[in-house]
């Protein structure tokens, strides 16, 4: 795919996010933010036998942070907690498909940080 097609997909996920909202009684909920730019992401997961059966995110921020969260939510349904824990920076950059500069890298990786914190069972944002 060319950079232009990847950019179009990122913009589409930003303008029309997938799985944005909240789940009823999520098994995992975690929230974090990037204090440098103000991006915020909350991720909620429903699990059955340690496999993600539903996922949602909410938050606000730049196109990169919000599009990445939307893309990641689509990607993780059907994956086990162990698979979530093994996701890394390269997986996110491959998913985005474009070069991300150092300033935007924290934006692109915020949803992964939140997802992994939730998957590892760290205490999340109070309800």
Name of the top-level CATH class: Alpha Beta
- Counted beta strands: 3
Gyration radius, in Å: 14 Å
The N- to C-terminal Cα distance equals 41 Å
The number of helical segments is 5
Please state the second-level CATH architecture.
Answer: Alpha-Beta Complex
Strand residue percentage? 15-25%
Structural class: alpha+beta
Report the order of strands and helices: HEEEHHHH
Whole-number mean pLDDT: 88
Spans where pLDDT lies below 50 across 5 or more residues = 123-127
Strand order of the largest sheet: 1-2-3
Please describe the biggest sheet, giving its number of strands, its sense, and whether it closes into a barrel: 3 strands, antiparallel
Query: How many structural domains?
Result: 1
Report on this model:
- By secondary structure, the chain is α+β, with helices and mostly antiparallel strands.
- It has one domain (3-119): Alpha-Beta Complex (Sufe protein. Chain: A).
- Helix content is 46%, strand content 20%.
- The protein contains 5 helices and 3 strands, in the order H-E-E-E-H-H-H-H.
- The chain has helices at 3-15, 63-76, 81-86, 89-96, 102-119, and strands spanning 28-33, 40-48, 51-60.
- It has a 3-stranded antiparallel beta sheet, covered by helices on one side.
- Helix 2 (63-76) runs parallel beside helix 5 (102-119).
- It starts with a helix and ends in an 8-residue tail after the last helix.
- 34% of the residues are buried.
- Mean pLDDT is 88; it is low at 123-127.
What descriptors fit this protein?
5 helices; Sufe protein. Chain: A; disordered C terminus; three-stranded antiparallel β-sheet; 127 residues
């Amino acid at each position: 795919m060319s950079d232009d097609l990847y950019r179009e997909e990122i913009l589409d996920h930003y303008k029309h996010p997938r799985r944005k909202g909240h789940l009823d009684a999520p098994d995992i909920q975690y929230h974090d933010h990037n204090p440098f730019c103000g991006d915020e992401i909350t991720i909620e997961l429903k699990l059955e036998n340690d496999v993600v059966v539903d996922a949602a995110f909410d938050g606000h921020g730049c196109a990169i942070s919000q599009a990445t969260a939307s893309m990641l939510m689509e990607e993780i349904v059907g994956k086990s907690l162990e698979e979530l824990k093994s996701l890394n920076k390269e997986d996110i950059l491959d998913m985005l498909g474009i070069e991300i500069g150092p300033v935007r890298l924290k934006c692109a990786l915020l949803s992964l940080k939140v997802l992994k914190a939730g998957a590892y069972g760290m205490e999340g944002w109070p309800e």
